[in-house]
Amino acid sequence: MNSIDYKKYTRVVFFIFALLILWPFFNSLSNSNDFEIFMGAAKRFQSNLEMYDGKVVYERYLHYYYSPLFTFLLQPFVSLPEYRFPADSVLPNILLSMLCAKLVWNTLNLFFIYRIVKIILDIFSFDKPSTKILFYSILIFLGYRWLHINIRYGQLTIFLLFGILEAFCNPKANKWLKWWPMMIAINIKILPIFMYLKLFFDKRIKVMVGIFLGVLFVTFIPWFFIDKAYFMRELVSWLHAINPVQTSHVVQVGEGGFMDIGAILTKYFTSTNAPREYYIYFTNLSVSQLFGLTQILRLAFLGAITFLILEIKKIPQNKFNNYVQVSLVCVGIPMIFPHQRDYSFAFFIPALTVVVFYYLQNKNLFNAIQKTIFFTSLLFMGCLVFFEIFSIETRYFIIGLRTQGIGGILFAIGYFRLIYQLKDKELTGSF
């Protein structure tokens, strides 16, 4: 393939990708998603009302768990005039404030996706242009659903992943500024704090302290602009709401559809069931037993990640080595933290790129069992068959079985095995 053909095919691939991303971009503007919850909390914040009380529910009877800072950042939108588009318009009964908020967030998501793609493509290189185009195409096909549902449902996972990759995998980023997106991400949704594991193994104590102080700083930004007593009350309520040892974070059935380890154990080892889901359980553990078993499996996940990172760190450093370490930590995030849904599997994108890369480089590295594990895991997570083609009843059945979560565990097992297999081989080289 000559350079002209390569550029032509590359443009076609990314043009198709852009069209696919614009689909959920515009779909979300006229449909309900979690921004109704965020904006509802922001309106209560504007009026100095309680946001985190268990009796306070928002759209679809859901609760708000994100930080006061996020509702503070949404204040320009909730301050817009309460204009509602006519029922017979292309945006039937949509509030102007909601439209503007979603437009801004979706546009930011396009930027975050651009940065994620650019960072990934700067890391991987190929001898043949045709292989590189195949790499792009496979990643778009397998990873698209995670991007789609994050944009369509107004989620923050793309931003969280961007913050992590910008901080750890962009060698061109400013030494200090690169940490700010991740610090804001930790404040809004605590998940990226798991990256402290890598910082600890990298012995970057100053960075760890700096991130802590940065998160503390952004946490208290609203304190300078609103009633201080109200802010402190809401801050304490928020910290209480996200306390991981609360019963609601152990027995995860309040809303249904969670896919992390704790949610899978709740589904199959307690008789408590989420609304509109089938009762399927093998035994009925108490809350304390469920909590103990959940912690053991979380520690097992954490132990596997720790072992592999320490093994990889024995290899001379290169940018690919660092990326693999980051991908291992990212795999742990949606499985270890409570209340994780299928859109959180966007954290698997770095690991997915490694799997696809090695598969294209040397298919013989994957035996029949490994191929089966990856195929089954991607099928269960909806990467090979888009769940939205099924009826709503079938989707509830799939979600009720925690199929995506089981797929996530299978993918993690396959990925951990692949990295262990490769740690003394290809990772020793530069790419």
Secondary structure tally, helices? 19
- CA-CA gap between termini: 21 Å
Strand content: under 5%
The ordered string of helix (H) and strand (E) elements is HHHHHHHHHHHHHHHHHHH
Structural class: mainly alpha
Question: Can you tell me the residue ranges where pLDDT is under 50 for at least 5 consecutive residues?
Answer: 427-431
Largest sheet: none
Number of strands: 0
Q: Tell me the helix content.
A: 55-70%
Q: Mean pLDDT across all residues, rounded?
A: 89
> Radius of gyration over alpha carbons?
22 Å
Q: Shape from CA axes? A: globular
Describe the fold and architecture.
This protein is mainly alpha-helical and 431 residues long. It has a domain at 243-431. 62% of the residues lie in helices and 0% in strands. It is built from 19 helices and no strands. It has helices spanning 3-27, 35-46, 68-73, 75-78, 96-123, 129-152, 157-168, 180-188, 196-201, 205-219, 228-241, 247-250, 261-269, 287-312, 319-336, 349-361, 368-380, 392-400, 403-422. α14 packs antiparallel against α15. The chain is globular. Mean pLDDT is 89; it is low at 427-431.
